[in-house]
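New to this. Please check this protein:
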Amino acid sequence: MECKELIARLRDIVGPEDVLTSRADCATYGYDASVFQGEDVIAVVFPQSMAEVAHVVRLARAAHMPFLARGTGTGISGGAIPTQGGLVIELAKMNRILEIDLANRRAVVEPGVINQDLKEWLADQGYGHTYVPDPGSQVVSTIGGNVANNAGGMHCLKYGVTTNHVVGLEVVLPDGEVVTVGGMVLDQPGCDLTGLFVGSEGTLGIITKIIVRIVRLPEIVTTQLALFPSVDDAANAVSAIMTAGILPAALELLDRACIDVLEQTIHIGYPEHAGAALIIELDGLKDGMQRSIDRVADICKRHAVIEIRTATTPEEAARLWLSRRAAYGALARLAPTCYIVDGCVPRTKLPEALAQTVEIGKRYGLHVANIAHAGDGNLHPSIPFDINDPEECQRVMACGRDILKMCADMGGTITGEHGVGVEKQNEMPFVFSPADLEVMHWVKEVFDPEDLCNPGKIFPSSTRPRFLA
């Protein structure tokens, strides 16, 4: 099929205004929030229904044309960049909240719904419920993209990641067939096909409808900030809090390198001898909450806490959270680009892992600041660098690779919530054997034997993506 004919037929499906073909327009969709750059595509298509998505997919398959779905492009592993050109199927216009079922605590949404918009819509309706997953990009990322990457967030310690909140999906398979997996009822018989699609990074099909769990808002939320002399003291306090049977909603850690950057940029006002900060959020019933707050404070005191602050108003809580929420923006001021590594270690290995990330950075002559979802051992070492310096780019990627190898060697994994994409595809052997990867290939081939649906992702490849120009 000639390119002109393909574009004409795409316009027949979705309308002329919903097919972009100019070089400038298409170039925008060769990027996401990662440090990588995709290949040129021939068109960007904006379907507005499942039927249109299915029709576009069937047309692409008939033309043997690679295609990939895209939300708002907030992923940082390169999962939404076109590695082989073809078509981008942009789902931003499929952004309707279709149904709210309070009795069963379910919401049905299209993939283009912004994560934060669903939260705000539930709040505005006064339902007393919310959608919990809260990746750092929640104000702009789509629920479809969150599902594709199995996104996490600061509250995944208590509430789990995206897969724990998705109970059903409507999916257009790579041949254009439409299937429904899961449903309103949580316990479905047979294989967990819903779980198979969550986290598959758009390589097995295009999600066009999502059924998610919504949960009742807690009666009370409290925030504490604890400052420690060292990362070891803070990490040991984390383990002690969890061992005591206390399950915080969030438990975030910043090391001294991160604190220094925050002091330079927003003058956070922490003591000079504070080597680490913990932000601890508890939620639940009012009855007994003060006892939990006091227990956390006592545990921190047993681990050499310098100072502990407890918010008494929402405004004070926002100020305590400021350091965590401003961290990436502060780091971004140090250099043109900031590379964020995403790995996990067992919680007991957290002190050692944080120390090693700094040492690995020093070996490569790089400044590494540690931010961590400390409660579940999810590390985000952050490395400011100049993406216009090819030699420094190579050092940064080698540093990130060594950090991920360290995580795997400690019994952890190479991604906690950001996905594999193109960034970590060659690190998959750190945690999976050749036999494991072969089984994954089999699954991919069952759904997509022609390898047209978001090709070039997840699996090891000799072809490496380009850095941003």
Notes: The CA atoms of residues 2 and 63 lie 8 Å apart.
